Amino acid sequence: MINQNTNLSKWLILINPAAGNGKGEKKWPYLKSLLEQFDFEFEFHFTKTKGHAIQLAKEGIEKGFRKIMAIGGDGTGHEVVNGIFEQKECPTTEILFTLLTIGTGNDWIKTHKIPKDFKRWLPLIKKEKTIFQDIGLVQYHLDEEMKQRYFFNVAGMAYDGFLGKKLSKRSEKITNKFLYLFAIASWLFKYKLTKTQINFNNQKIEGYFYTINIGICKYSGGGMLFVPHGNPTDGKMALTIVRKVPKWLVLLLTPFFYNGKLNWLPVVSLHKTKRIVIESLENLPCDLEVDGEYLGETPVQFEIIEKALKIIVP
């Protein structure tokens, strides 16, 4: 449990010890000394299980904390953000959020140009230069029940969702970029496309899609730019639709996933919208992952919550 004795200037720090293949636990003594060196007042807790950071964030806010620092990867940040948005104690805009990255992809920080170097980032956190970022709300199905989750970076469906489901079943996380690309390539030939309908901006698009991405920010998958038009403060979600292409061609197109020029490809269309509904038109559902975490499957609905998360930027 979190202590009662807290105040508004004190940081609640939530550490995922398993982040980055155990770096969270190994680096904490060093990080703790840096935090003390820069005169941070804080209380810290290690997460113990999947979803624990959601609970710890909610408890902390109930006890009076209004500054929360996550230490881990995008998955840890995702859980803390969901804790912020699930609590009923105060408006989410009154809570200050930041992230120290020790994860695998570390994609959310790329959009905001947040440094990975702790010695550079901690003094900037002290300055508390803030903006309000948009947040996505997704409703989806899992085991025939409708659920919902918030996301602060990028969501993926079709092959991205299938890949997220495969990765969620691994006992060990992939922490090497080249091994991740190898996994993408090897699982690609096991993926079966399903006919899907995408409803947004008063139009419906039906077909077989290689991937569907919905972005608040720009980067996912360890630096990939499936939503290069993502803007976390413009009040709209970036939607990228990639139609069916031969699987061997997907491998040749990989450079376009990183250079932000997907729109050069005729099978790709980029859009901006506030609401998206995605349904499978066949018995085979379309899988969903958000912020790198597998959640469930179609039918799925996305909505935007404008300028709802207060974050620190350089």
Q: What report would you give on this structure?
A:
By secondary structure, this protein is of the alpha+beta class. The chain folds into 2 domains: 93 residues, Probable inorganic polyphosphate/atp-NAD kinase, domain 1 (Rossmann fold, 3-Layer(aba) Sandwich); 170 residues, Tumour Suppressor Smad4 (Sandwich), CATH 2.60.200.40. It is built from 9 helices and 14 strands. The chain has a 6-stranded antiparallel beta barrel with strand order 7-9-8-12-14-13. Strand 1, helix 1 and strand 2 form a beta-alpha-beta unit. Helix 2 packs across helix 3. The N terminus is likely disordered.
CATH domain topology of the largest domain: Tumour Suppressor Smad4
Fraction in helix: 25-40%
Q: What are the low-pLDDT stretches, counting only 5+ consecutive residues below 50?
A: 1-6
Order of helical and strand elements: EHEHEHEHHEEEHHEEEHHEEEE
Strand content range: 25-35%
What profile does the largest beta sheet have?
Answer: 6 strands, antiparallel, barrel
> Largest beta sheet: what is the strand line-up?
7-9-8-12-14-13
* CATH architecture type of the largest domain: Sandwich
Average pLDDT metric: 92
Question: Which word captures the global form?
Answer: globular
- How many DSSP-defined strands? 14
The CATH class assignment of the largest domain is Mainly Beta
Radius of gyration: 19 Å
